Amino acid sequence: MKYLVVLAFIALASADVKNVRQKFNGATITALNEQITRELQASYFYQAYSQYFARSDVALPGFAKFFSEASKEERSHAEKLMEYINKRGGDVQLKEVKLQDVCDTVSKGLDSTTLSFTKTTSCICNFMTGDVTVLSGFDCDKSKRDDWHNGLLAMEDTLVLERYVNEELLKLHKGHDDDAHLSHVLEHDFLDEQVNAIKDIADKIRQLKRAGSGLGEYLFDQKL
């Protein structure tokens, strides 16, 4: 009897949700839920980087603060999308978030990009997951962490991730451009911010290359 009551309640709740939904199809909802996962992955990635720079053997508090704020921002993006799905009468579905998945995405981007990056593997990300295989390889030799130029590597990883998220947002926008309201939200609340973020990170990479490691990186950290 209790089982039937629960089913009836769920059916009634679903009917109420459908009263809100208009021109908001399943494919769009699925795509938005996938984007939520990407935003949460980015948040997790930046939190890992914040903790890396807070380590006593790295000790770059400016970078730690920068990535902590970036993590909060990406989480807020995910929350905005969740709120939007609910506002349109959709179903929010949260998937498992693994740091290693983000490491692999960033490493793939580093390896395949036509841009000029220091390494082809996300060394810091894999260090935070404890991936022994990657950390024993030539590109990310754990015993040579002093030569990693931590700030520069982190910003290069960040640029790859931000470009990836931007590309996925562009696909989302293009694939559902017949939804006028969604297009408006993506353009004004997400895409504008992504363009600004990509420019900002690219500038920081140029500045770090100019400053060099050691004292230059230390002074850069003080200004973050």
From TrEMBL:
<comment type="similarity">
    <text>Belongs to the ferritin family.</text>
</comment>
<dbReference type="GO" id="GO:0004322">
    <property type="term" value="F:ferroxidase activity"/>
</dbReference>
<keyword id="KW-0479">Metal-binding</keyword>
<dbReference type="Pfam" id="PF00210">
    <property type="entry name" value="Ferritin"/>
</dbReference>
<keyword id="KW-0732">Signal</keyword>
<dbReference type="InterPro" id="IPR009078">
    <property type="entry name" value="Ferritin-like_SF"/>
</dbReference>
<comment type="function">
    <text>Stores iron in a soluble, non-toxic, readily available form. Important for iron homeostasis. Has ferroxidase activity. Iron is taken up in the ferrous form and deposited as ferric hydroxides after oxidation.</text>
</comment>
<dbReference type="InterPro" id="IPR008331">
    <property type="entry name" value="Ferritin_DPS_dom"/>
</dbReference>
<protein>
    <recommendedName>
        <fullName>Ferritin</fullName>
        <ecNumber>1.16.3.1</ecNumber>
    </recommendedName>
</protein>
<feature type="binding site">
    <location>
        <position position="162"/>
    </location>
    <ligand>
        <name>Fe cation</name>
    </ligand>
</feature>
<feature type="binding site">
    <location>
        <position position="77"/>
    </location>
    <ligand>
        <name>Fe cation</name>
    </ligand>
</feature>
<dbReference type="GO" id="GO:0006879">
    <property type="term" value="P:intracellular iron ion homeostasis"/>
</dbReference>
<feature type="signal peptide">
    <location>
        <begin position="1"/>
        <end position="15"/>
    </location>
</feature>
<keyword id="KW-0409">Iron storage</keyword>
<dbReference type="InterPro" id="IPR012347">
    <property type="entry name" value="Ferritin-like"/>
</dbReference>
<feature type="binding site">
    <location>
        <position position="194"/>
    </location>
    <ligand>
        <name>Fe cation</name>
    </ligand>
</feature>
<dbReference type="InterPro" id="IPR009040">
    <property type="entry name" value="Ferritin-like_diiron"/>
</dbReference>
<dbReference type="GO" id="GO:0006826">
    <property type="term" value="P:iron ion transport"/>
</dbReference>
<dbReference type="GO" id="GO:0008199">
    <property type="term" value="F:ferric iron binding"/>
</dbReference>
<comment type="function">
    <text>Stores iron in a soluble, non-toxic, readily available form. Important for iron homeostasis. Iron is taken up in the ferrous form and deposited as ferric hydroxides after oxidation.</text>
</comment>
<feature type="domain" description="Ferritin-like diiron">
    <location>
        <begin position="22"/>
        <end position="212"/>
    </location>
</feature>
<keyword id="KW-0408">Iron</keyword>
<dbReference type="GO" id="GO:0005737">
    <property type="term" value="C:cytoplasm"/>
</dbReference>
<feature type="binding site">
    <location>
        <position position="39"/>
    </location>
    <ligand>
        <name>Fe cation</name>
    </ligand>
</feature>
<dbReference type="GO" id="GO:0008198">
    <property type="term" value="F:ferrous iron binding"/>
</dbReference>
<keyword id="KW-0560">Oxidoreductase</keyword>
<dbReference type="InterPro" id="IPR001519">
    <property type="entry name" value="Ferritin"/>
</dbReference>
<feature type="binding site">
    <location>
        <position position="74"/>
    </location>
    <ligand>
        <name>Fe cation</name>
    </ligand>
</feature>
